[in-house]
Amino acid sequence: MADSVSIEAAGVGKRYCRSLRLATLYGVQDGLKRAVGLKTGGEPLRSGEFWAVRDLSFQLRRGECLGVIGPNGAGKSTLLKMLSGSVLADQGKIRVAGRIGAMIEAGGGLQPLLTGTENVYAYAAQQGYSTAQAQAMLPRIVEFADLQGQMDKPVKQFSSGMQVRLGFSLLAHFPPDVILLDEVLAVSDARFRAKCLNRIPQLMQHSALVFVSHSMPQVARVCTAVAVLDKGACIFQGRDVPKGIDAYYAVCEPDIPPVSSGTGQAKLLDCRLLLDGQPLQGALPYGRELALALDLSAKAAEAPTLSLTITNPELNNIIQCDSAFSGFRLPADGARHQVLAELGPLHLNPGLYFLSLTVANEASGEILLRSDNFAKLRVAGEYFGHAPVQIAGRWTLD
């Protein structure tokens, strides 16, 4: 393996057995084979076995961050355990150059019976740093983890969030050659997540990172490449991170039903998505103008405003169009009215989106109708950006 390569995985696979009884039997058989010098893992799957990870290959260098994404049960955590050495691969080879720092679970790498301060010294010694270096670094570690006044307690008394903060702070101040992160930021608050995401590019100057997460905004922000796993198989691998995220959404595409709420004083009677004045057939081409023909009725004391929202498959709001900005209000006479909402060109990443509508009294905030996910929208195109929405802007030399 070249010196510049921190991790090399070649045809890596791991299989498990669904039956505890058979797993014990197979474990004894494989142990006996290894004891006499025979290789295991190359034979076909036995009864009850399945591939948690199969035939995965990649190289990772310092300065790179590989995002490993996929649905639950895809094999992501199994891969990290093989890379860390806590689980042996049944197939292929893994070679890691240098020291490994892993946060595969909250509290991973910490000694629960030691205090927070003692853990700092223990981790520093494990990574080859002296006691004097650990002592000099201690105040910065505590400040980054926001654990002032907590470091004299045993780590077992820390909450999971506190353990994550201390564990990541140790990685950040004593960076190893390889860092493995498995969904650890999910239990942190927004402030600490932002602090960690801002620190990762600095860590990449010293380390190669493997980052497992279900948060696609986090993956888009920090990863230089992605591998999408599904049922143990790698279905996408490459440096086009946004395209990999779209592959992830294709695997995890949700079937989200429409949901209505509100006072009932407004009703969405019909909706049509339009392209060039005609009903949209299939996907909306990237960058084209979208319009909606909404058949609505409302009966209230005041004419309400309308708000359209486009969300991603995780139901995070991406775009909002509020009629109040245009001074438009829906007549509240109880009659059926057709409203044309022209949203203009949509430079959305290719993929699946959902549309929601809110009809509300602007003055009181009373919601007459909230219709979530009343329509699906698929955008098609070849351009994938690192943010959900792209703007062309104007670029000139001054």
Order of helices and strands: EHEEHEEHHHEHEHEEHEEEEEEEEEE
Mean pLDDT rating: 91
Strand content: 35-45%
Identify the CATH class of the largest domain.
Answer: Alpha Beta
Compute the separation of the termini in Å: 47 Å
Structural class given helices, strands, pairing? alpha/beta
Number of domains: 2
Strand arrangement in the largest pleated sheet: 5-6-7-3-8-9
For the secondary structure, the number of strands is 19
- In the predicted model, the low-confidence regions spanning at least 5 consecutive residues are none
- The CATH homologous superfamily of the largest domain is termed P-loop containing nucleotide triphosphate hydrolases
Structure explained in plain terms:
- The protein is of the alpha/beta class and 398 residues long.
- The protein has two domains: 5-251, Rossmann fold (3-Layer(aba) Sandwich); 259-380, Coagulation Factor XIII, Chain A, domain 1.
- Helix content is 24%, strand content 35%.
- The chain has helices at residues 20-35, 76-84, 116-126, 131-145, 160-173, 190-203, 216-222, 241-251; strands spanning 5-17, 49-61, 65-69, 91-96, 100-103, 178-182, 208-212, 225-230, 233-238, 259-261, 266-275, 278-279, 284-285, 289-299, 305-311, 317-322, 333-345, 351-360, 367-380.
- The strands form four sheets. The chain has a six-stranded mixed sheet, with helices on both faces.
- A hairpin with a 5-residue loop joins strand 15 (305-311) and strand 16.
- Helix 3 (116-126) crosses helix 4.
- The longest helix is centred in the first third of the chain and has 16 residues, at 20-35.
- It is globular.
- It starts with a strand and ends in an 18-residue tail after the last strand.
- The mean pLDDT is 91.
